[in-house]
Write a structure and sequence with these properties.
Blueprint lengths: L12 H4 L1 H10 L11 H11 L4 H12 L4 H12 L12 H12 L2
Helix pairs in contact: 4-6
């Protein structure tokens, strides 16, 4: 689904989901492996360094997981990741990645 087909408020995902966007563009950034070489290590690094953002991240992930249209979720997540991360090479979908982070946040 092209971004043009998304409501105008959805085009500003960085403002709607700042914690998730930061997590994707900083911690999961494919340009470096500063935070780990596996998804679990990267998630752990995010949780270690972003203690103050946990509640905000959890709320944003809950909102994203409530999107039932997979195409819409994929479009939003791709837009937020800004080409810096894709879950498919890791054997994940955007939804499964969010679910993994959500599970770790709740532990």
């Amino acid at each position: 689904m092209p971004l043009d087909n998304i409501h105008i408020f959805d085009k500003h995902t960085a403002r709607r989901y700042p914690a998730v966007r930061s997590m994707l563009t900083i911690y999961f950034n494919r340009e470096h492996d500063d935070f780990g070489s596996t998804l679990e290590e990267i998630i752990d690094s995010y949780l270690d360094y972003s203690v103050l953002m946990r509640a905000e991240t959890a709320a944003e992930i809950t909102a994203l997981l409530n999107i039932t249209d997979e195409d819409a979720l994929n479009t939003l997540m791709n837009h937020m990741a800004d080409g810096r991360f894709q879950p498919e090479p890791w054997g994940e979908t955007w939804r499964s990645l969010l679910e993994k982070v959500d599970t770790r946040l709740k532990q």
